[in-house]
Specification:
The strands form five sheets. Strands 4-3-13-12-11 form a five-stranded antiparallel beta sheet, with helices on both faces. The chain has 425 residues and is α+β, with helices and mostly antiparallel strands. The protein contains 14 helices and 13 strands. Helix 4 packs antiparallel against helix 13 and helix 7 packs across helix 12.
């Protein structure tokens, strides 16, 4: 008889996509198990011995090769936040009868990934009970068009480059914008005259398209390139996607226009969350990491501090009264973010359509600590707009995460307490 060991995963399906699995020989084949297999795995040693007729060792002749023990690896994700995000996502999947979904939570300052959950998931302790597609870490590997969640980045690029002032007013009437002979950009209705903040609040495709065409294609490309569009994030996670960003010399006017509301460019949910760090971090973008302490932390300047603060202030209005993201508001905290709804073709002829519902944001907006991105793929019940489907998930995840990390609320808690105390109640 020979004793063998079997890997056991206490967190089960909650953290399966990040941690990954090993094969029968204890070699990592998915996730961080694979990425850091050489670090985690031990190497057996060897020694020369004399054995008797019955294979019993009777004399030790010395060590041939010393064993090398596997080293510990401390990941950045917080198991508590991971669980809360997984629970919120799973509930939303059931409520909206969706096909798949992902949630990513980042620390804005360090770039550490605090949570990355997906549905459908799998239990790594039951090797024969799941399909290969369930093992895919959609948050890191799958690509999507960001839709309107890209608009805050476009507005920041316009302001930072001096191509538009925050208070600049753009005429969006009559609700559509003809760019070429047969190319039209449309809004869901006529929003009239909007400033840049209003364009984000109403999520006007016409307004952002008109604004972005005042900007040279090369200047826009350089901003998106600095944000990481089209580049592999560099976390070391197996199969991480880099997305697509075509070179600006290949763009036509219509392509630049539709790119301003998230079509014609692709990235992963993790990359989308990473791009928002430049807004939450006063223009600085830290490198991403799945390891605690971010041993290779670097920061690059993307926007001017004032630009990032201006756009953050605009995004607080998106989750306020009249904005598309009201359901993302986190009680007790200033909240900022942007909804997104991507229409995708199911069949090649484009006759059937499906949707991706997104929300990307951060809190507290006054001094952002956490960023979260929610993606719900193909909701079939209870609406499909990002503000209906993804925003409530963001609110639940962010509310629990801020509480677990003991981050103080910033919506005048002292004033509220004083009012209650003064009333004698």
């Amino acid at each position: 008889l020979k004793r063998e060991y079997r890997r056991y995963y206490p967190a089960g399906e909650v953290s399966a996509h990040i941690i990954g699995v090993t094969d029968i020989d204890d070699t990592g084949i998915e996730g961080m198990e694979k990425a850091y297999n050489d670090v985690l795995r031990a190497t057996p040693g060897a020694k020369r011995v004399v054995r008797d007729l019955y294979s019993r060792s009777i004399k030790d002749l010395g060590l041939v090769r010393a064993p090398r023990y596997g080293r510990d690896l401390e990941l950045s994700f917080d198991q508590r936040i991971q669980y809360q995000a997984y629970r919120a996502l799973k509930k939303a999947m059931a409520v909206h009868a969706a096909r798949a979904g992902s949630v990513v939570v980042l620390d804005t300052r360090s770039g550490e990934v605090l949570a990355a959950v997906n549905q459908p998931s799998f239990n790594p302790n039951e090797r024969g009970g799941y399909r290969p597609g369930e093992r895919r870490n959609r948050a890191v590997i799958d690509l999507l068009e960001p839709g309107s969640t890209i608009k805050p980045l476009i507005v920041a690029a316009l302001i930072d480059g001096g191509y538009a002032a925050p208070g600049a007013v753009i005429e969006t009437s009559p609700g559509y914008y003809q760019i070429m002979r047969n190319k039209i950009v449309e809004d869901i209705r006529d929003f009239g005259r909007l400033d840049l903040s209003g364009i984000l609040v109403k999520s006007s495709n016409v307004g952002i398209s008109k604004a972005v065409l005042k900007m040279p294609a090369e200047a826009l490309w350089r901003v998106l390139d600095r944000l990481g569009f089209g580049h592999i994030p560099g976390t070391g996670f197996p199969g991480e996607a880099g997305g697509t960003l075509r070179y600006h010399t290949d763009w036509h006017r219509i392509e630049q226009a539709v790119m301003a509301y998230g079509y014609g460019v692709s990235l992963s949910p993790l990359q989308l969350a990473h791009s928002y760090t430049a807004l939450a971090n006063d223009g600085w973008q830290p490198s991403l990491s799945f390891l605690k302490g971010n041993p290779h932390l670097e920061k690059r300047r993307v926007f001017k501090p004032q630009t990032a603060r201006s756009v953050r202030a605009m995004l607080t209005r998106v989750v306020g009264d009249g904005g598309t993201g009201q359901l993302a508001k986190v009680r007790g905290f200033t909240t900022a973010g942007k909804t997104g709804t991507i229409r995708k073709s199911v069949r090649g002829d484009g006759e059937e359509t499906d949707y991706l519902s997104l929300f990307a944001g951060f809190a507290p907006a006054s001094a952002p600590r956490l960023i979260a991105v929610v993606v719900i793929d193909s909701p079939t019940r209870g609406g499909y707009y990002g503000g209906q489907v993804a925003a409530p998930v963001f609110a639940r995840v962010m509310s629990e995460s801020l509480r677990l990390l003991n981050i103080a609320d910033d919506e005048h808690p002292a004033g509220d307490f004083a009012a209650v105390a003064g009333s004698g109640g």
